[in-house]
């Protein structure tokens, strides 16, 4: 029995639809009413000040031996994981300049002529490359976004030939950026291990040690003529261990669900958003034998560029 490794329908780039000036979106992007973007109503105006926790990682990245401050930071992360599953981090060890370069260079890629991007068109065999859909179900309702997916770790999967050659500095910038995020994720894995009552290296080793997997996905959300009818990224929980998100600096589109309410995340300047994945949740349940964390579901409503590293 053979397995299909091709898309079930012709691929249409969302950016092309947006640039065409169409006043309506095709039916394949129209979400069912219950799945459409949630906008805070006047009755919920008090929720607009609610945001995911913001945590300063300075004591973890500077080598400061202040044990009290370190313990406080570790406790803040523990509480954020229990209550939200999401938190923002500042003083994380990645320079604002590098963060801006990474986001801007991907934005430049998505604004290249279509024929230059199509060189990297992906397939459902690996998804690596330039894409506009996930899954091979015919007639599926799609998200209003294009993306680029690539492997960074383990080194055996990393292939610069599958990374865009244009804009010219992209490969160099993303190598440096991803290196820093791997270091950041390592620090966070140690904190999570401590919060689980385990040795500092437990989660890192559980996810592969020196052969840990890390991939980069960049989502591009073109302007939409009917933003109330669709989503840039459908509601989901992340299946891996941890996702570190670099949100768009101008458009707030990420929403997370807490207590059955959708809350729009307000990114702090040059902060990363950290999302605990399903596999970390499973470790917690197996070790603590406790109740499940809240439903860490998120979606992206509209607008901009978002750079994600998942482990």
From TrEMBL:
Ranges for domain Fe2OG dioxygenase: 211-311
InterPro entries named among the record's database cross-references: DIOX_N, IPNS-like_FE2OG_OXY, IPNS-like_sf, Oxoglu/Fe-dep_dioxygenase_dom, Plant_2OG-oxidoreductases
Keywords linked to the UniProt accession: Iron, Metal-binding, Oxidoreductase
GO molecular function: metal ion binding; oxidoreductase activity, acting on paired donors, with incorporation or reduction of molecular oxygen
Pfam families with a match to the protein in the record: 2OG-FeII_Oxy, DIOX_N
Family from the record: Belongs to the iron/ascorbate-dependent oxidoreductase family.
Protein name: Fe2OG dioxygenase domain-containing protein
Lineage of the organism: Eukaryota, Viridiplantae, Streptophyta, Embryophyta, Tracheophyta
């Amino acid at each position: 029995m053979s397995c299909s490794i091709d898309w079930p329908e012709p691929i249409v780039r969302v950016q092309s639809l947006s640039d065409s000036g169409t006043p309506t979106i095709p039916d394949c992007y129209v979400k069912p009413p219950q799945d459409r973007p949630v906008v805070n109503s006047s009755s919920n105006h008090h929720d607009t000040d609610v945001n995911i926790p913001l945590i300063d990682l300075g004591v973890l990245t500077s080598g400061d031996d202040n044990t009290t401050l370190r313990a406080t930071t570790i406790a803040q992360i523990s509480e954020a994981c229990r209550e939200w599953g999401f938190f923002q981090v500042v003083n994380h060890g990645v320079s604002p300049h590098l963060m801006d370069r990474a986001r801007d260079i991907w934005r430049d890629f998505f604004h290249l002529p279509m024929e230059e991007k199509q060189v990297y068109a992906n397939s459902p065999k690996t998804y690596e490359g330039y894409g506009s859909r996930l899954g091979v179900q015919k007639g599926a309702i799609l998200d209003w976004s294009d993306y680029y997916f690539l492997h960074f770790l383990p080194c055996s999967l990393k292939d610069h030939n599958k990374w865009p050659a244009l804009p010219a500095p992209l490969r160099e910038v993303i190598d440096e950026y991803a290196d820093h995020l791997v270091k950041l994720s390592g620090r966070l894995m140690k904190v999570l291990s401590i919060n689980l009552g385990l040795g500092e290296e437990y989660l890192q080793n559980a996810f592969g040690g020196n052969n840990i997997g890390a991939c980069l996905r960049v989502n591009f959300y073109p302007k939409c003529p009917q933003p109330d009818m669709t989503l840039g990224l459908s509601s989901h929980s992340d299946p891996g261990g941890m996702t570190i998100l670099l949100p768009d600096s101008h458009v707030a589109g990420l929403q997370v669900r807490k207590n059955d309410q959708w809350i729009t995340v307000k990114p702090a300047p040059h902060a990363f958003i950290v999302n605990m994945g399903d596999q970390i949740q499973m470790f917690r349940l197996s070790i603590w034998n406790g109740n499940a964390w809240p439903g860490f579901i998120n979606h992206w409503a509209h607008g901009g560029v978002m750079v994600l590293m998942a482990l």
